[in-house]
From TrEMBL:
Protein name: 3-hydroxybutyryl-CoA dehydrogenase
Important for catalytic activity (site feature) positions: H143
One of the GO biological process terms: monocarboxylic acid metabolic process
Keywords of this entry: NAD, Oxidoreductase
Organism, as annotated: Flemingia macrophylla
Positions that bind NAD(+): G11, S12, G13, H14, M15, G16, D36, E95, K100, S122, N146, K277
Pathway: Lipid metabolism; fatty acid beta-oxidation
3-hydroxyacyl-CoA dehydrogenase NAD binding domain sequence ranges: 7-186
Sites where the protein binds CoA: S52, K59, S122
Homology family: Belongs to the 3-hydroxyacyl-CoA dehydrogenase family. In the central section; belongs to the 3-hydroxyacyl-CoA dehydrogenase family.
Reactions catalysed according to its record: a (3S)-3-hydroxyacyl-CoA = a (2E)-enoyl-CoA + H2O; a 4-saturated-(3S)-3-hydroxyacyl-CoA = a (3E)-enoyl-CoA + H2O
Length: 295
């Protein structure tokens, strides 16, 4: 792939704004277009990126000049067509196959012929997203971890038709972003969620069947296995709805009942107990939720 001069990020929510920040701070001189259909989400992203960059500058993790340059490289738009010159487009919109596919159809028409279309999906098949475009060889999974500016890993997912050139270019881009890369074939849950989500689901079963209290389950995994957060605490951080939808993808995609979601997880989601973002999940959070060891 020729030199990357412009990158588009679609979806300016939690992940998309973090990804745009990572690209702007790591790739000097590269235009970063951040698109969302919701203009409120764009303004929220603009202020959260500014304060995050200012925080990095105040902690001397980024120079004032580099911080100013990164902010100047960022462009916020509600017009998808503004991404027409992007060399690389990273999609980070809502986790719905139908909505993502319809976006990929549009991106396929708008993006230049050489552009690579990457998805930050946690669980949706890259092969199926790719098949909605006329360029399946140039479609790939680029799964950032939450929050993107802090977490070192990118899980690259090769769809059935992803070309070696696309894979090599995506790996090179990930390294330029300062990340460590792992590679997965396109099977449900990829590597990280295939292993993490059944563990979280099992923690729900332990709570559901009265094995122990939520506090002891989390303390057991933190101090007993050196995890920075307990599985129930982590589920609240990720979002219980997100955990449930990934369990359903594993269950349907791998066809094994060992992936059936725990009834307690289903019930919490039905009750709107979605975790930190709702102020209540497995735990209750006040106005000032306790800070996460991931942040
Ligand atoms: N939250 C996590 O821990 C995490 C971790 C890794 C990957 N992911 C994946 O990243 C993606 C985004 O997750 P998030 O947590 O940032 O979600 P989010 O809800 O914070 O943000 C999604 C954004 O997408 C926008 N959007 C929806 N449809 C759109 C469209 N058609 N065009 C443009 N914008 C649109 C919404 O307005 C919203 O601002 C999902 O695929 C998710 O599975 C999430």
């Amino acid at each position: 792939m020729s030199e990357v001069k412009s990158i588009g990020v679609v979806g300016s929510g939690h992940m998309g704004s973090g990804i745009a920040q990572v690209v702007a701070t790591a790739m000097q001189g590269v235009d970063v277009w951040l698109h969302d259909v919701d203009s409120n989400a764009l303004s929220k992203a603009s202020s959260s990126i500014s304060s995050s960059i200012n925080r990095l500058v105040s902690k001397s993790l980024l120079s004032q000049g580099a911080g100013d340059d990164a902010l100047k490289q960022l462009r916020f738009t509600s017009n998808l067509e503004d991404l027409r010159d992007a060399d690389f487009i990273i999609e980070a919109i809502v986790e719905s196959e139908e909505v993502k596919k319809s976006l990929f159809v549009k991106l396929d028409k708008i993006a230049k012929a050489s552009a690579i279309l990457a998805s930050n999906t946690s669980s949706i098949s890259i092969t199926r997203l790719a098949s909605s475009t006329t360029r399946p060889r140039q479609v790939i999974g680029m799964h950032f971890m939450n929050p993107p500016p802090v977490m070192k890993l990118i899980e690259i997912v090769r769809g059935a038709d992803t070309s070696d050139e696309t894979f090599t270019a995506t790996k090179a881009l990930s390294h330029r972003l300062g990340k460590v890369v792992i590679t997965s074939q396109d099977y449900s849950g990829f590597i990280v969620n295939r292993i993490l989500m059944p563990m979280i689901n099992e923690a729900f079963f332990a709570l559901y069947t009265g094995v122990s209290t939520k506090e002891d389950i989390d303390t057991g995994m933190k101090l007993g296995t050196n995890h920075p957060m307990g599985p129930l605490e982590l589920a609240d951080f990720i979002g219980l709805d997100v955990c449930l939808s990934i369990m359903r993808v594993l269950h349907a995609g791998l066809g094994d009942n060992k992936y059936a979601p725990c009834p307690l997880l289903v019930q919490y989601v039905d009750a709107g107990r979605l975790g930190r973002k709702r102020g209540i999940g497995v735990y209750e959070y006040g106005k000032e939720p306790k800070s996460s060891s991931h942040l």
